[in-house]
Amino acid sequence: MLDDNKYILLDLAEFSYAETPLEYDIILGVTGTLETLSDQQKRIIEDKFKILYNTYYPTVHLAGGLQYNEKSDILIIEKKEFNSKIVNEITIQKKLERSIIVFFENNDELNKFM
After folding, report:
1. Which of 71, 82, 110, 111 is a Cys-bridge partner for 104, taking CB atoms 3.0 to 4.6 Å apart?
2. Could you give the residue ranges of the DSSP H alpha helices within the chain?
3. Mean pLDDT value across the chain
4. CA atoms of 10 and 113, how far apart (whole Å)
5. Alpha-carbon gap, residue 99 to 89, rounded angstroms
6. Distance (Å) of CA 1 to CA 4, 8, 9, 10, 14
7. Residue 92 to residues 1, 43, 65, 83: CA-CA distances in angstroms?
8. DSSP 50-82
């Protein structure tokens, strides 16, 4: 009998991926599909995970209508025009009430911009 069974099955732990959010004090950026949940699913989200408030943002994925255009999405400009182009683009996007994030290569570049 021992010759046939040469392994030992040890059940040492259980892990619930779905309950991982319960380990955190704050939950942000849950999913883009919250709007499609049933009433029962929404109650579970509220009761179990204590997610009581939702803010919905439009998708930034290509399926949402955003498309890359090499001619208009890439600018090649003189270095001296760089800061003013960024400021102009920020101004345009603010007028359209869009979110804006500007990334800089490092702190030195950020400080030059400021």
Report:
1. 110
2. 39-49, 70-73, 82-95, 107-113
3. 79
4. 59
5. 12
6. 5, 14, 16, 19, 30
7. 78, 40, 19, 14
8. -----------SGGGT----HHHH-----GGGH
In this predicted structure, the answer to whether residue 2 has a pLDDT above a threshold of 60 is: no
B/e letters for 63-81, b = 16+ CB within 10 Å, e = fewer, are eeeeeeeeeeeeeeeeeee
82 or 75, higher pLDDT? 82
Q: What is the pTM of this model?
A: 0.40
Tens-place pLDDT, residues 5-34: 677 777 777 778 888 888 888 777 666 677
Domains of the chain: which residue ranges? 68-113
What is the C-alpha to C-alpha distance for residues 101 and 90, in angstroms, rounded to an integer? 9
Which residue carries 């359209």 as its tokens?
96
Other CB atoms within 10 A of residue 89 CB: 13
